[in-house]
Every structure is written in C-alpha cells, then in structure tokens.
Design brief:
This protein is of the alpha+beta class. 18% of the residues lie in helices and 29% in strands. The chain has 4 domains: 341 residues, Glycosidases (TIM Barrel, Alpha-Beta Barrel); 74 residues, Golgi alpha-mannosidase II (Immunoglobulin-like, Sandwich); 73 residues, Immunoglobulin-like (Sandwich), CATH 2.60.40; 140 residues, Jelly Rolls (Sandwich). It has 11 helices and 37 strands. The structure holds alpha-D-glucopyranose.
Length: 672
C-alpha cells in the first residue's frame, strides 16, 4: 500500500469490527471521542454535513503530492529549496471560499503545517514559514480565515504532529542521501521542546485565525501518547472552549475520521467525518487525473449523511494557488444538486432503516423522511418497506411546485407513484411528511451471528414492541398463518429462517432471512513432540498476489513464535509462507481472520479459509471452518509490494472466545 496509513487503517478496521460485532449504541472503542449527548458545542458541525479539505504547501511545487519529501526520500536541505520557489501569485482567498460556498460546503479545513513541517501561516516559532521563507511573503491563512468570515463558512486548520523538518524529531531512516522520515520519533530528551513548539503554534493559530476546528494528523509518530493528546486537548479548550477537535490527536477528540472510506454502518452514537480525496491524492499531484465523477461524489455525500456523518472532500491547489479546474467543475455540480436538494442533507440525521434500501438512501428530519433514489423505479412505483405511519404528503424535493405524489399501501410497504422519467439522473429525492415521528419497522434480526453449526444450534429472532413475529423454515415469505415465534428454537438440520413482524394480522416490516449451514468437523492430525513456533520461508520478488510458493526458492528459512512479520525484512517486494500447526481446544466452528497490507491467504489443511489476496492497504477478511479438537495444519501466505506492510492473524471460536484475538504463540507449533 502506498503510504503508511497503517495505524489509521487499523483504527478504521477496529471500528468496522465494532460495528459488526456490537449492538448499536455500544461505544467501547470510541470512548475517547465525544458522544451525541455532548451536542451543544458540536451542533453547527453536525448540521453542516459537507466541508472542504485543502492540502496546500510547498509540496505543490514538485507537484508529486504531500508525501513527496518522504516518498521521494528528499533530504531536508534539498526539500527546503521548494520554499524559495513557492510564489502563488494567482492565490485569491475569496475565490477559494466562494468555490467552497458554491459547492454547498459549510466549512473548510486547510493544512497549516503538514508532515513536511513547512508552516503555511505566520509563526514566530520558526522561520520555515510561508511569510518569511518564500518570495511570496503572504499569509494565506489570514486571508482565508477573513474570507470565510465574510462568506459565512466555518474555518478550520489542519496540524500535523509528526514533523519531518523538526530538529526535535528524527527520521526513521536518516540516511543523508536517501532519508525515509515516516514514522519519525522524538529525539532523546526533545519531546518537551517539541510540545512547547507545538503549543506556541497552536496558540498562534487560535489567536491569529480563530479556527473553529483543529484537525490533527500524524499522531502515529513514535513517542506520541494518548496522554499527550489529552494534554493538548485541554490546552486548546482553555484557549477556546468552543473549538472542535478531531480524534487523530489521540487520547481525546470530538469526532472520528475514517479516511477514504465510508463506514458501512456509520459510527452509531459518535460524531464522524469521512475525509476523502477528489482524485487519488491530497496534495497537488500533476500526474493524477483520476478524478471521481460528480455522481460518485454526490452519492458519497448522500451515503455519508444517511449514516449520520460529515463529508470532508479534499482539493489540492497548485503552486500558483489555483484549485484545479476538474475539481472546481465537480464541486460546481455538487453545488447545483445541493441547491435543489440540500434540505435532505443539511441538519438531517441518519436513516431510521437498519438495512440499506435496495434503490437508494434515506435521511431524516423530525416529521420528514427523505428518500434519495439512486435507481429510479422503471414502473414508476417507489416501494418503501417497513414504514407503518401514513404520510400526510409526498413530493419530489426538487420540484418547485411540490406536486403531491399519490401514496398507497401494499402490505408493509408504502408505494409512492413517481413520474416514469427520472427527474435527476444522479439522484432524485422523494420527501414524505408525517404528522409526528413516523413509525418504521426494520426487518427482524435472526441470531446468532454464527450461522454454521455441527450437530445443532439455537436461533433467535429480535422482537419489536407492539408486534408479533411469524417465521418460516422453508424459505417462503411468512404469512399471518406461519408459526409464531415466542422463544429460541433449536434446529439440527440446515435450513433458512425467514421472519417478519406482524401487527393486527398485517405484515409491518420487510422480511429477513438467515441460512443455517451444517458443517462436518475436519479431523485433527496427530503430532508427536511438536516444537513451539511456526516455520516460515522468506522470498523476494515483485508480486501482485500471493505467489504459488511450490517452486519458489526462499532467500531464508527460519522459525517465528507466531505469525508476525520477521524483524529482518525488506521495505518492499517480498513474500512469506508460514507453515505450522494450530491447536484448537474444543470441537466446533472457528472463524479465522487475516489483516494484511498487501495480500494474504490462510489455509487449514487443504482448505482455503481466508482469501485476502491482492494489492491493498491494511484490510481484514475472514472465513470459517469446523475443526475437531486437536492439531490442524495451518499455512499463511503473505506478500508485500510497495509502501507500508502489515500482517495480523486472528481467530475466534469455542474455547477461544467470541471476539477475534491474535492466535497466541501458546497454540502454534511446528514439526520438521
Ligand atoms: C493521512 C496522510 C495525509 C493526509 C491525511 C488526510 O494522514 O498522511 O497526507 O493529510 O491523511 O486525512
């Protein structure tokens, strides 16, 4: 994977896992960020839904994006020269803010100092800043903060904790000709000095530009701790109690910041913001023209709003101070859509539906449900399952006349008669108004999570107040005559459970189905006198998927205690095959996981249990297998192309626990 996003991606995966495994409202792994109860300070931010991220710095001169100093292994003294070439004579703060405003963006966050350490503001703490060290001698943050105030856009500043230029931080590989900075570490005894520098600059940012958001990054540098994060959080709130601070400060923060992705279920109970590039880079990269389409961007914004989050969409201005035209064009289209449909985005909350609508998304305001339709119904009938209340009025939001649409009921569903021709190809919003809060029934949830079993299992169906549950075991849609669910049911054969809520003899929800599969446990192997650890073979070469190791010649063979990456390894272009045995304590169904950057796979015996192959950043995949108590052959294949690397192998199951844990070295063996 390209950059070292490792830590953040793990964070992102942690919350994805939490969303899957924990009931809504459980906030365990987000304990450090502000929850919805604390909403007064966050009110404007949560209402805003859409903001502009700006990555601008002297990296726009070489024009290879903001990680160039690290990725191009540019020595400090060489990189510093870009400051002397930074003369953005075309910069105009009003133009930028008007672009944001016209796009429907309600706030803006600009890099005051990125990882390269160059300060894009007037600071007394270092001369390495835009006013002192460039031929331009101007302060863009001053102009932007003023323009934001003028046009009513909230202003925010990004600040990187990691600093590749700081005399207090050391590069991870300080090779003078070919340095690699990321991740930096505090030089011995210099942490205090850096924090002092940081505090001086943060105070300057607050007193000079009055940002309403402080957006931290780079907290994965070595030596930065949650305690340091908390200290800064408190320091900032003393300077400005209304300040909103993101979570990457670590240890404290007001909102989560999934990067380049939209969490499938949002982050219930917490404020969150997806930050995303408009092409593939944050800082200006002259070679990157892989712009997302306006349709994708608009639908991303809708998707995020339907999950209760904000969208911070990035632009990367050039060294002349110009936001590239393809970016402006896309923002312009977004603005046009928002002018007609903004009511369905700003100030809304997440969809009341727990499963994604097959044809679009939903957002809500008290008394109104907004349906954002991505796939317009060919027969002119929009079918909305599970809405029990009768709407008072339905209309197309962009229709200036607000012509009333006819709504009828078909079982649990409302059917809205919509025009045959789709009014807006990107997304048309159908609004339904109700007297009071509409009653919505989501399809029941059939448990447990594990749908595979050995001899028998017990299924449950979640209740909903005021309803009864009817279910079938043959895949048919339940009717009022189907069996009534009252308590957990034991099954011994594979089958599909289909369930639905009923009220007054009528189905009131959509149906949900769960298929239970019966497995046979794979026999254990006998293993006499195994040794602890796992054997591995290390290969070098360039791959785009896990290689077939059979005929490859390893560079090295050795033993590791577990499935960690060996300390001695190349930065890029290598592969590893791990071979050993795992001991499982009880006969039962186990889930195995790999998280890897790049690809990996996991075999038990000859069965491919986890396929996590391909070129990608830290990504988790899993698979299940039934195993007899005892030893089982396990093989993990892994490869690394470029950028950061990483591998984690976990499992869960009977005798292990119902949460994935790294397979401990106490159950890993090998036998030569
Ligand atoms: C990552 C990158 C950085 C970018 C940021 C935006 O942290 O290191 O370049 O500023 O993400 O989310």
């Amino acid at each position: 994977m390209k950059h070292s996003y490792l830590i953040k991606v793990i964070g992102v995966m942690a919350f994805a896992a939490v969303c899957l495994l924990q009931p809504v409202g459980v906030t365990r792994s987000f304990a450090q960020t502000t929850t919805h109860q604390d909403s007064v300070r966050m009110r404007w931010w949560a209402h805003a839904r859409f903001g502009m991220f700006i990555h601008w710095g002297i990296y726009s001169v070489p024009a290879h994006a903001e990680w160039y100093m690290n990725n191009g292994h540019v020595p400090r003294a060489v990189y510093e020269k870009y400051a002397k070439e930074f003369d953005p004579t075309k910069f105009n703060a009003d133009t930028w803010v008007k672009i944001a405003k016209n796009a429907g963006m309600k706030y803006l966050v600009i890099t005051s100092k990125h990882h390269d350490g160059f300060c894009m503001f007037n600071t007394k703490a270092t001369n390495y800043n835009v006013v002192k060290d460039t031929p331009w001698h101007k302060d863009p943050l001053k102009a932007l903060s003023a323009a934001c105030r003028k046009y009513g856009v909230h202003f925010g500043t990004y600040y990187s904790i990691m600093d590749w230029h700081s005399p207090y931080q050391g590069a991870s590989d300080p090779n003078p000709e070919h340095p690699t900075y990321n991740p930096t570490h505090f030089k011995p005894g210099k942490k205090g000095a850096y924090i002092k520098y940081m505090k001086t600059q943060l105070r300057e940012l607050i007193t000079q530009y009055h940002p309403q958001i402080m957006w931290f990054d780079g907290g994965w540098m070595e030596g930065w701790t949650p305690k340091d994060g908390k200290d800064i959080y408190n320091y900032l709130h003393k300077l400005d109690p209304s300040l909103i601070i993101n979570n990457r400060l670590t240890g404290a923060g007001d909102y989560e910041t999934p990067e380049q992705q939209i969490p499938p279920n949002g982050i219930p109970g917490h404020y969150w913001e997806t930050c995303m590039t408009i092409n593939d880079d944050w800082g200006y990269n002259a070679a990157d023209s892989n712009f997302k389409s306006s349709e994708t961007l608009i639908r991303n914004l809708i998707d995020i709003a339907s999950k209760g989050g904000n969208y911070l969409l990035n632009v990367g201005p050039t060294a002349m101070g110009v936001i590239p035209k393809p970016e402006v064009d896309r923002l312009d289209t977004m603005g046009t859509w928002l002018k007609a449909n903004g009511e369905a985005i700003y100030g809304t909350t997440a969809s009341p539906f727990t499963t994604q609508l097959p044809w679009g998304r939903c957002t809500q305001k008290p008394g109104t449900l907004f349906f954002e339709v991505f796939d317009w119904p060919k027969d002119g009938k929009l079918v909305i399952h599970g809405v029990h209340s009768k709407p008072e009025r339905a209309f197309i939001l962009s229709d200036k006349e607000r012509t009333t649409l006819k709504v009828s009921r078909r079982g649990d569903a409302l059917v809205v008669n919509v025009p045959d021709r789709e009014p807006d190809k990107i997304c048309t919003v159908v609004a339904l108004e109700f007297a009071g809060k509409p009653v919505v029934y989501n399809p029941p949830v059939v448990g447990p999570m594990m749908k595979s079993f050995l001899s028998s299992t017990v299924f449950t169906i979640s209740p909903a107040p005021g309803t009864e549950i009817r279910y079938t075991l043959d895949g048919q849609t339940p009717t009022v005559g189907s069996p009534l669910y009252s308590h957990p049911v034991t099954i011994t054969d594979p089958m599909t459970v289909t369930a639905c809520y009923f009220r007054d003899g009528q189905a009131v929800s959509g149906t949900s189905s769960a298929t239970f599969t019966k497995l046979e446990a794979k026999p254990a192997v006998s293993l006499n006198g195994p040794s602890s650890g796992v054997e591995y073979k290390y290969f070098t070469g360039e791959w785009t998927s896990v290689p077939d190791f059979t005929n490859l010649k390893p560079v090295r063979e050795s033993v590791m205690p577990d499935f960690a990456l060996p300390k001695k390894r190349a930065l890029q272009y290598y592969a590893i095959e791990y071979m050993g045995y795992v001991y499982v304590p009880v006969t039962g169904v186990y889930t195995f996981y790999t998280s890897s950057d790049d690809g990996s796979n996991l075999y038990i015996g000859n069965d491919l249990v986890v396929n996590n192959d391909g070129l990608h950043g830290m990504t988790e995949e899993h698979g299940i297998i039934a195993l007899e108590k005892g030893f089982h052959r396990i093989r993990v294949g892994y490869f690394q192309s470029q950028g950061s690397d990483g591998l984690e192998v976990k499992y869960e199951g009977p005798g292990v626990g119902n949460k994935p844990i790294p397979i401990p070295d106490t159950v890993i063996y090998f036998k030569r």
